[in-house]
Write a structure and sequence with these properties.
Elements lengths: L11 H6 L7 H7 L7 E2 L2 E4 L4 H22 L7 H26 L4 H5 L6 H27 L20 H37 E2 L7 E2 L1 E2 L3 H21 L5 H25 L3 H20 L7
Antiparallel strand pairs: 1-2, 2-4, 3-5
Helix pairs in contact: 3-4, 3-7, 4-7, 6-9, 6-10, 7-8, 7-9, 7-10, 8-9, 9-10
C-alpha cells in the first residue's frame, strides 16, 4: 500500500529540521542520505529488520522462482505461461520479503521503512535519467565490445527477449505489464528499499533493540555506510539477473548493465529519501529496452 501522506513520514527537509542546531553542517549534509523516518530529535532510529532479513529475502528471490518453475515444468512446456509463472514466483518473493520485514520488525509502513513515496517531479526525474542511463549503458557496451570483440557468429543475449514469447496478449502481460511496470516497482522496493537500507543501517548504526524499532548510536560515517550500501545492493541486484542468460559474455554484459542501473537508482533513493525517482527510472530503462525489441523485425532477434 502506498502511503502518499507527508505528515507520518517527513521528507528530507522536514527530517533535517529535527536535527539539533549544534550538529555540524557536514553531519547535516550527510544526514540527508538516511531514511527520513529514521531521523528523530532524540537520535537516529534503527528498525528491527536488517541484514539477515535481506539475506533470507535474496535466497527466496533465487529459490522460489527456480523451485516453482522446475515443479511446473513437468506439466507446462517452455512458453509464455511458464514465463508468467516464474515472474509471479519472483514477485511473491520480492513483495513478501519486503512486507514481512516492515510489518514484523519495522515501522509497519512501506513508506516509512523503505521510502515508498512518490512526487510528481519523480516522473520528470525518472524519464530523464532513465533515458540517459540507457544511452550511457549503450556506450559502455560499445566500448566493452571494442575491447573484447565478438567472435564470428556470436550474439549477445539479454534478459528481455524471454518476455517476447507467445501471442500479442502474452507479450503485453509478460513484457509490458511484467517486465516494464511490475518488475521495476517490486525490484526497487526490495533492492533499494530493504537491501540497501539494511546494509546502510548495519554499517552506520549499533545498539538497537532486537526485533523492533529503537534508538541507536552511530558507529561509522553515514556517508561511508551509504556508499557501501549502494555498491552492495547494486551488486546483489546485478547477480540476481545474470542467471537469465546462458553464456559468460552475456552474463558479464548483463551484470555491468544491471549494476550500473542499481548504482544510479541507489543514488536517487538516498538523495531524495524516497523510491519514486528510482522506480520511474527503472520503468523507463526497462520500457525502452522492451520497446526497442518489439520494434525490431523478428529475424533480428537472438
Amino acid at each position: 500500500m502506498l502511503d502518499m501522506r507527508i505528515n507520518p513520514t517527513p521528507d528530507h527537509h522536514g527530517a533535517q529540521a529535527m536535527i539539533p542546531s549544534n550538529v555540524p553542517d557536514t553531519a547535516r549534509v550527510s544526514a540527508r542520505f538516511a531514511n527520513p523516518a529514521q531521523l528523530g530529535p532524540a537520535g537516529p532510529l534503527k528498525p528491527g529488520w536488517g541484514l539477515w532479513q535481506a539475506a533470507v529475502g535474496l535466497l527466496l528471490v533465487l529459490a522460489l522462482p527456480l523451485g516453482g518453475t522446475l515443479a511446473l515444468s513437468s506439466v507446462l512446456s517452455f512458453g509464455p505461461e511458464l514465463v508468467f509463472a516464474s515472474l509471479c514466483f519472483t514477485w511473491l518473493a520480492l513483495l513478501g520479503s519486503s512486507v514481512l520485514a516492515s510489518r514484523v520488525w519495522g515501522f509497519g509502513s512501506l513508506a516509512r521503512d523503505f521510502g515508498l513515496r512518490f512526487k510528481w517531479i519523480d516522473l520528470a526525474i525518472g524519464l530523464g535519467i532513465g533515458i540517459a542511463a540507457r544511452i550511457i549503458l549503450a556506450l559502455v557496451q560499445v566500448i566493452m565490445t571494442l575491447l573484447w570483440p565478438l567472435g564470428e557468429g556470436e550474439m549477445l543475449q539479454g534478459n528481455a527477449e524471454i518476455f517476447l514469447t507467445g501471442d500479442s496478449g502474452w507479450i503485453f502481460v509478460n513484457a509490458v505489464l511484467g517486465g516494464a511496470l511490475i518488475a521495476p516497482f517490486l525490484e526497487e522496493l526490495f533492492n533499494r528499499g530493504l537491501v540497501l537500507r539494511a546494509v546502510q543501517n548495519a554499517w552506520w548504526l549499533k545498539g538497537s533493540a532486537k526485533g523492533r524499532v529503537s534508538t541507536a548510536t552511530p558507529q561509522r560515517s553515514l556517508t561511508t555506510a551509504t556508499v557501501v550500501a549502494i555498491l552492495v545492493s547494486s551488486l546483489a541486484f546485478g547477480l540476481l539477473h545474470t542467471g537469465a542468460v546462458g553464456d559468460l559474455r552475456s552474463s558479464i554484459y548483463l551484470l555491468v548493465g544491471t549494476f550500473t542501473v542499481g548504482v544510479i537508482c541507489g543514488f536517487l533513493t538516498v538523495w531524495t529519501g524516497r523510491l519514486g525517482p528510482a522506480i520511474v527510472t527503472h520503468v523507463v530503462f526497462n520500457g525502452t529496452a522492451i520497446g526497442l525489441l518489439l520494434a525490431l523485425p523478428p529475424e533480428l532477434l537472438p
